[in-house]
Design a protein that fits this description.
- This protein has 92 residues and is an all-alpha fold.
- It is 78% helix and 0% strand.
- The protein has one domain.
- The protein is rod-shaped, with a radius of gyration of 21 Å.
């Protein structure tokens, strides 16, 4: 491999690492913090609301403890939305 090829290869690797780092930073700030906070703010009345779906990008940057809390909270919010949906159907 020539010096020029080595330089291009190292530049490519730096670019890939830089892009992965910025994607992870965006996932940590936007998906894991702001977006999840917004979804937790209100429990939706419809059990099929988009906020009750799993966010794979946020899960990519969570550790095991955070994943456990995320799944517990998601399960709780889904159960509440399901019970509200059932109550709405029974009242009609």
């Amino acid at each position: 491999m020539t010096k020029w090829e080595k330089f291009k290869h190292s530049l490519y690797l730096f670019r890939c690492d830089f892009l992965d780092g910025t994607r992870n930073l965006r996932r940590k700030i936007w998906n894991k913090r702001i977006k999840l906070w917004w979804h937790k703010l209100f429990i939706r009345k419809d059990e099929f609301h988009l906020s009750l779906n799993m966010d794979a990008e946020a899960m990519m940057v969570m550790n095991k403890e955070e994943l456990k809390r995320y799944f517990d909270d998601l399960r709780r919010r889904r159960r509440i939305a399901h019970n509200r949906d059932l109550a709405k159907e029974n009242s009609e």
